Amino acid sequence: MKTLARWVDGKVNLIAIIFLFWAIFWGLNGGDKFLNGEYAANLNDWSVKAVLVDETGGVTHRMHAMETIGPFGVNRDEEMVAFFQRVDMPAPVALAFLYGIGVLEVVLGVVFLALLSWHFLPEGAKARAGLLSDRTLQSLAFKGTMLLFVMFAAGDILFGERTELWEHCTFLILAILTYNLWHSHWVDVD
Known about the structure:
By secondary structure, this protein is mostly helical.
């Protein structure tokens, strides 16, 4: 049991936690773009947005609020199409962009997962790993992360999404800090 505890203590360091975080983050962030919620009427009386009345003043029809329900409660397709319509872009362009970014995010999550598994290899096996051993793939993964957050922030500014802008800028700062931690770790090691 002591040997296992020492192995975990020696292997699970800040760099491993960073790789794990970004692998989970990009996997979930990209994967949820393929799981759309559906619009459905909220039939509760408190959700009525408007009513139709007849000549006598009696209510003939209630218009209930629409909300998204589903795996994540968001309909990404319709949200992205609405964003792109603000800048006069057609719906197919919006959907191609949405799913293209989703695929890139999932690929980035897989890259970080590969980096995490590479991190646990013995030192002799790490030296034979090519782009992994000279840390090119790690650098590209972190730079890809920062590039995606810059793209997201630019889109948030373009589409007027202030809340999303704060979120993406916070993650951009986190990506810069984690890249700096990873880079300084390898400079210290070399």
